[in-house]
């Protein structure tokens, strides 16, 4: 390969401008031809993406069939018009479904995590892979493995929550679902893990901002989910925008070479986030020029540039000037080509256009989306068993800005949708009750805009009803009035009165309901009617007033295209909710950050309020009732390891079949370095029939209890450990203990 061909393989260009469309005809754009004429490239990103940032609509974007044609045309052109004919790696966004027109839209990651069901997420990811593969994608950006410990951060909805163990289990399941047993399987795609590392805890919640995480905290928490996913076989990993101890992640040799490759044995390739190489010069100011930024990144172990401008001419110049050796360049190129061979791109670069309709947006896929939505719903409060709604209800008022808004229900990184595809809460309620119950709807107010509220009309409708369903929260719905950064993050502008208050770039200073939402809820409360508050949103919001005054609260996050029906099924008892919070919900902004597994010592209360969150990690109610009993903890120590078996029984003492999510936490009573006050070590969601008892059993070994010692070595230390078994991190039902007589090295 020539120098130019090698550098080209490391460039991943923005793909949505690389095709043109004329009616049903789709063909390669002049921009793509000019790009290839200058230098062959290795990959395209977001070619099939459609949203206001890309300016691709249901009209200007591509249907699934057209998408397959476009990818085939691009592959054919580069194979036939370059000297070596190396196929493109087509990378697509897949956080909660392929971000392309026609694909199935699942709940966002924070909702996926609320299922506490890795097996279901693996099934979901298999669907996403099949739909992406069908239209030509071979690489999916996801899962996002950032720990979200400050809900002011705009991308909280993209995370699996605050806990490393839960995030790791969910991420591992998604990687397996996307990739299958090995890279290159039909209907499977390569996973790219995001964002490496500690991206979700920026100071002040500022997206991409600085954080103060040290090495021990990194190893105990933030690196763990990535390690789990890497060991599950993830083929690619993306660097984060932030820095670690003053070193940007995109030029961090310790992170990319020592930890990722040497310690974990990673064999795939590392890709930058969009423009993060250029960010060394423009944002972090650790490079004085583009050439210096490219040099720092590739020498640190970053293989591929997402943007085409971070490497490209800069890297070419760096090699020619002797700043980057040919050996370093060859190593990066080899990492890319190795993955392409494993994916089978050289043997089969094209997609079968005849299979698209049978794989994308099918009824079977929709049903899986609905099941994920069902299992993601968290019942936060149910005073006097208001839910499920009882027989005798004749008139329901459905009120609120998120009751009948398809885009407010879907979250960020979502393609345009035809109205009939998405089932809103209002749609779901009407579909379930038919003509037997009168249902009236009034929006009442928007998420943010206070100029067009109609609270009086909402009250008028609500006065006539037997019960009020108030659907409120937030929105990550991008629109064509919003402006965007070069990275695709939305730009916050006060003149923009869209509903968007969450999603990439929309960080919050407070967690209060915006606009007139709380005002509307308080006015509805004055009517004296029973109210069910359904929240649809991407981050925890302040529910303190609602907890004190509203009898039933349902958390739905962004539940996806089938979310409205799933919510309706919970409201009317067609589905028994069992979702659990993957993130703590604070009482006040002043508590932040508030997460369950903070380091010792235990928190003391504030003057104004207790230190504990309003709803703790792992919390969620059910229509069933469960009791725990017969905890047994047994330890067998061997020379190199030990096995701690924890078993107990859970009984469904109610008349209703339901799922229970059992959670096992461990406290290291005395340790050589400071550890968490408690740490989740095992969990399982299981269906238990009414008046039945289930036996649960878990095994812990040395790797489950390890710590990063003062000598910078992993070990599990001798001493006493407490076992906490419960329904949440605070609702502990059973307690036990065990001891280890010796240290175990790893």
Automatic annotation (TrEMBL):
The keyword Hydrolase applies. InterPro entries: Cellulose_Degrad_GH3, Fn3-like, GH, Glyco_hydro_3_AS, Glyco_hydro_3_C, Glyco_hydro_3_C_sf, Glyco_hydro_3_N, Glyco_hydro_3_N_sf. Keywords: Glycosidase, Hydrolase. It comes from the Bacteria. SUPFAM superfamilies: (Trans)glycosidases, Beta-D-glucan exohydrolase, C-terminal domain. One of its GO terms (molecular function) is hydrolase activity. Residues 660-729 form the Fibronectin type III-like domain. Belongs to the glycosyl hydrolase 3 family. This is Glycoside hydrolase family 3 N-terminal domain-containing protein. It comes from Sphingobacterium thermophilum.
